[in-house]
Amino acid sequence: MDIVDVVAACDIAYRHNRNVVETGDGLSLHRLEDGAHFVWSNQTLVFWMLGTRPPYHCADSLEMRPNLIITDAARQIAKEMISSVLQGNLISLLKGEKVADFKKHLLDFLEKAGSLPMSDAELLRKIGMVVYLPQVDEQARQRTRQNIKCHGLMNGHHLDKVGGKLISAVTILKCFYSNNFQCYFVSAYTADQCAIRFSSKTQFSEGETVTITGRIKDHVYNSWSGEPEYPLTKLSHVKQVYESSL
């Protein structure tokens, strides 16, 4: 067992369980006595893939565990993930004082595990920390895609006049929920690479193309941290328009 196998197992477990949640694959779920379904935790799956008994498990249900195998392709992905973390490309996504110790310990552990022989026991003790790497990796890839698209928006322009009405097909760049405002904040762009931003009670998916109508509220320039500056049109009173309404 080495650090590459541990990270590979964490990635396989993360993607397997995400697929279980998204598809409801009953074969990957364990039915409890009360009829509820239980998804094996990522950490438990990792222990099984590494041929080690998890700290906690139901002995009478071990035969129901999914058959996950660490392949050479998974090891290659793990090597790239470790390299990206050590170069700071992934770890830079983690912000705030609360994760400062986590960042330091993770970096120290990966550097040590990559250069010094470590016992299986030492590696297994850190699974609870390493198991978060695949999620951070996915977030980094999403941010990279968004930044590439944002650079294309630098050639766009402000739409129409403030106060005017807009109806247009747009592609969703990102959408996140604000607990403070109890709504989604949506960034999108038109076919001619003009950026817009608006709030909505509706959740949209990245890459989704929808037709919307709204009022032009303001013409500004994007100033979000980590993104290039580009012309941005803010909208208000936005509604999604369906084909039957056109």
Sequence-ordered SSE layout with sheet pairings:
Blueprint: H1 3-23, E1 29-31, E2 37-39, H2 42-49, H3 72-86, H4 100-115, H5 120-125, H6 127-130, H7 133-152, E3 165-178, E4 183-189, E5 195-200, E6 209-221, E7 231-241
Parallel strand pairs: 5-7
Antiparallel strand pairs: 1-2, 3-4, 3-6, 4-5, 6-7
Helix pairs in contact: 1-2, 1-3
Euclidean distance between termini CA atoms: 60 Å
Shape: elongated
The poorly predicted ranges are 26-37
Radius of gyration: 23 Å
The biggest sheet amounts to: 5 strands, mixed, barrel
Summary of the model, kept short:
The chain has helices at residues 3-23, 42-49, 72-86, 100-115, 120-125, 127-130, 133-152; strands spanning 29-31, 37-39, 165-178, 183-189, 195-200, 209-221, 231-241.
Question: What features would you highlight for this structure?
Answer:
OB fold (Dihydrolipoamide Acetyltransferase, E2P); 37% helix; 7 helices; 246 residues; 2 domains; five-stranded mixed beta barrel; alpha+beta
Overview of the molecule:
There is one protein chain. The chain is of the alpha+beta class. It folds into 2 domains: 3-143, no CATH class; 156-245, OB fold (Dihydrolipoamide Acetyltransferase, E2P) (Beta Barrel), CATH 2.40.50. The chain contains 7 helices and 7 strands, in the order αββααααααβββββ. The chain has helices at 3-23, 42-49, 72-86, 100-115, 120-125, 127-130, 133-152; strands at 29-31, 37-39, 165-178, 183-189, 195-200, 209-221, 231-241. Helix 1 (3-23) packs across helix 2 (42-49). It starts with a helix and ends in a 5-residue tail after the last strand.
